[in-house]
Design a protein that fits this description.
It contains 2 helices and 7 strands. It has about 140 residues and is an alpha+beta fold. Part of the 50S ribosomal subunit.
């Protein structure tokens, strides 16, 4: 699973996920991308499931870029634990994904294969997504 090697502080507050993404709203590396249409947390397990489904669909051809990384720790208290006694232990890691962010990119394969791989990846995610294509500055593909 993806997780940071080390962090300055083990635990974080939950925060809010509002607004649009500040960057990464265009496809930069590949030819096709999977864009988030809602804001949400994406867990490390969900990212890995998407990666595996894309790798199996592409069958060792083309390239995959993952543009999100789970760097936010999520804590939870044990079942049957009473209130108080401090914050719970770190249970997993999530990536904060805002609306409009391109999460995954694929390049080096034909259009049908890329779309099929991104559709499989989108089915593993808890948010609505859209498949987007890369546009050059001149307006041509």
């Amino acid at each position: 699973m993806l997780m940071p090697k080390r962090v300055k502080y083990r635990k974080q507050q939950r925060g809010t996920v509002r607004g649009m993404t500040k960057g990464a709203s265009l496809v930069h590396f590949g030819d096709w991308g999977l864009k988030a249409m809602e804001s949400s947390w994406i867990t490390a397990q969900q990212i890995e499931a998407c990666r595996l489904s894309m790798v199996r669909t592409l069958k060792r051809t083309g390239n995959i870029w993952i543009n999100i990384f789970p760097d936010k720790p999520i804590t939870s208290k044990g079942i049957g634990t009473r209130q108080g006694k401090g914050k719970g232990d770190v249970e997993g890691w999530v990536a904060v994904v805002k609306k409009g962010r391109v999460m995954f990119e694929i390049g080096g394969v034909d259009e049908a294969t890329a779309k099929r791989a991104l559709e499989y990846a989108a089915s593993k995610l808890p948010i609505r997504t859209k498949i987007v294509q890369r546009y050059e500055i001149g307006g041509e593909l």
